[in-house]
Write a structure and sequence with these properties.
The complex is a heterodimer of chains A (about 325) and B (about 290). Chain A is mostly helical. Chain A has one domain: ABC transporter involved in vitamin B12 uptake, BtuC. Helix content of chain A is about 75%, strand content about 5%. Chain A has a two-stranded antiparallel ribbon. Chain A has a two-stranded antiparallel sheet with strand order 2-3. The radius of gyration of chain A is 20 Å and the shape is globular. The longest helix of chain B has about 30 residues. Chain B is globular and about 60 Å long. The chains are: A mainly alpha (about 325), B mainly alpha (about 290).
Chain lengths: ~325, ~290
């Protein structure tokens, strides 16, 4: 018995309407956006936001909904990017097959990792995930023969069914599509009985177990799902960028992803989109404060968390509700 | 044999720094339940400020004293401006705050003291002492001796003084501590200042051996976290044991296995220990409440 409660049609239809309306609006905005962006630079920024938003949504399922922290999530992103780079570049695999193989490998790795470390809690889980991430990036840096070492390696173009994906314009549609898919899938998952079980886990593992939620099975599934999503994005990103470096898997990237989730709002899918947009734009906007951008970035982070401890999106919607009533 | 001894000397020296950093982690964790991801920046601050002042011509003792006091003051400011206003927030929120603080500190040092590396002169010469075929730098003796003195002073502080007992009481049970009149907000500030000073001392001691730069704190902080976790978060004895064990492990890995994977060894061992004993070597087993 894993379901926390039977699914009733009433709840489902109301909830799905609430999910679909903003999603359709958002998808429409994504379709119009390229027409408004003056050049490839802005398209590139939009692509980076979409990638980070998809990653943040995947990570939010784990951190925000399930209450399990991961300070090493970039490892899955980076390892899969290298997987694709090596399989396509060195072994001449078709890019789509390489993407599937990398995602499957990383998913399997995540499964093993999850089985072993998800019994840890709180700071100990933070330490364990952080450690795995650091080990992955050190391995990528030092296995020079396979990965090109600290200098990284180049990645051939992506193609599927003879169709090559080249240039910001083409890639924009790929990443816009993955982002919308992530929003829809995550929305459905959160709204399902499994989603309720996850939130029960976040509230209290012991209590969730007592009402029949198989805690470790659920945690493992979410961890694998979240890691595999990051892996797919990693492979695609490698092809888009045309180059991969060990930094993709390193601790700062993991921290950046967690920051997006927390600043945007835990357990909020739109919050993750917002958080990813803000934190991807911030370095671009702060770049003019030469040398001071790190200070400004850190100060903004601290201030946001002090004044909006639950994150921007939940605080915003609470404020709107107060105003409405 | 002499290579083994050499590795042991190097390991204990670095391990002493890790021990001080781990103690800082544990003190703050005890006082507030916060894992301070800015702890490594205090190690960096200590080394950088001392080296900066020494380069300006300040006598070594003055530079060292100023660096420790400055780090403690910055720790106090961090507690007052960033941690105290966010009291009661979720653990992940607090982690992000300390990460934000670490960025501000790193950026601040980068802007004021530059991106280049800094070196502090050794406290008493750099003529190596030969011991059973292995050499040992006088600075290593300073590191180990100072760490021993600091640890002993800390033990006295926690056992004998009202403030130290207050910190322990708060760690044990915040509400009960408040009920018997402990000012737990002051405890928070004191523990941040104390941890910052401990980190800075470690950073100053190691600066003459390993050059320091504005971004040196990240890895040192993570190592301190590893050492504190190995020993069991919140355990003072564990922090010291964990620090020394980690230093030894690293230098033996570098000496006998691979220097490229020296940094990875720390994280491999912490994973193994967490899997065997999920609450560290000296940590109390935890039980959660519904």
């Amino acid at each position: 018995m894993t379901e926390a409660a039977p699914r009733t049609p009433l709840v489902s239809s109301r909830a799905s309407r609430a999910v679909w309306a903003p999603t359709l609006l958002f998808a429409a905005a994504l379709v119009v956006l390229p027409l408004l962006l003056p050049n490839a630079y802005y398209l590139d920024v939009a692509i980076r936001i979409a990638i980070n938003a998809t990653l943040a949504i995947a990570l939010n399922l784990l951190i925000g909904y399930t209450g399990q922290i991961s300070l090493g999530h970039a490892a899955f992103f980076g390892l899969s990017a290298y997987g694709s780079a090596i399989l396509v570049g060195e072994f001449n695999w078709p890019p789509s097959a390489a993407l599937l193989a990398s995602a499957a490998l990383v998913g399997a790795l995540a499964y093993v990792v999850a089985r072993v470390i998800l019994r840890l809690e709180g700071h100990y889980l933070a330490m364990a995930t952080l450690g795995l991430g650091v080990i992955a990036s050190i391995a990528l840096t030092n296995e020079v023969g396979l990965t090109g070492g600290p200098d990284g390696m180049s990645v051939p173009d992506f193609s599927i069914l003879g169709l090559r994906v080249v240039g910001e314009k083409a890639w924009y549609w790929v990443f816009a599509a993955t982002l919308v898919a992530a929003i829809v899938l995550a929305g459905n998952l959160v709204d399902s009985p499994a989603g309720r079980a996850l939130r029960a886990l976040h509230g209290s593992q012991t209590a969730a177990r007592a009402v029949g939620v198989d805690a470790s099975a659920f945690k493992t599934r979410v961890f694998v799902l979240s890691a595999t999503a990051a892996a797919v994005m990693g492979s695609l990103y490698g092809h888009y960028e045309g180059f991969v470096t060990p930094g993709l898997a390193a601790f700062p990237k993991s921290v950046q992803l967690v920051t997006m989730v927390v600043v945007g709002g835990m357990a909020s899918i739109w919050g993750s989109v917002l958080g990813a947009a803000m934190l991807s734009l911030a370095p671009e906007l702060l770049a003019r404060f030469e040398g001071f951008e790190t200070i400004a970035f850190g100060a903004i982070l601290v201030a946001t968390m002090i004044f909006l401890p639950r994150g921007i999106a939940p605080s915003l919607s609470a404020w709107l509700q107060r105003k409405g009533s | 044999m002499s290579q083994f001894l050499q590795s042991i000397f190097a390991g204990v020296t670095v391990g002493a720094t890790y021990a001080l950093a781990a103690l800082g982690f544990s003190i703050i964790y005890n006082a507030s339940g916060v894992i301070n991801f800015a702890q490594g920046e205090f190690i960096m601050l200590g080394g950088m400020i001392a080296a900066f002042l020494a380069a300006l011509g300040a006598p070594l003792a003055l530079a060292v004293a100023c660096a420790v006091i400055a780090a403690a003051a910055i720790g106090l400011i961090v507690a007052k401006t960033a941690i105290e206003p966010a009291r009661g927030a979720e653990v992940t929120t607090l982690i992000i705050i300390t990460i934000g603080v670490s960025m501000v500190l790193r950026g601040g040092v980068e802007v004021t003291m530059g991106k280049g590396g800094h070196a502090l002169p050794p406290f008493s010469g750099d003529k190596p002492i030969v011991l059973a075929g292995a050499t040992i730098l006088p600075q290593s003796l300073w590191v180990v001796a100072t760490t021993l003195v600091v640890v002993a002073a800390l033990a006295l502080f926690f056992e004998r003084t009202r403030l130290g007992k207050g910190i322990l009481a708060t760690a044990h049970n915040r509400l009960a501590a408040q009920l018997v009149g402990v000012d737990t907000r002051r405890i928070l500030s004191v523990s941040f200042a104390l941890s910052a000073a401990l980190g800075a001392i470690g950073g100053i001691l190691i600066a003459p051996i390993a050059n320091t730069s504005y971004d040196a704190g990240v890895m040192l902080g993570l190592k301190g976290f590893v050492a504190a976790t190995i020993g069991g978060l919140g355990s003072g004895l564990g922090a010291v044991a964990g620090g020394v064990a980690l230093g030894l492990l690293e230098s033996l890995t570098a000496g006998y296995l691979s220097s490229a994977y020296k940094d990875a060894a720390a994280f491999v061992i912490v994973l193994v220990i967490l899997l065997v004993r999920p609450s560290g070597m000296f940590g109390a087993a935890s039980s959660s409440r519904v």
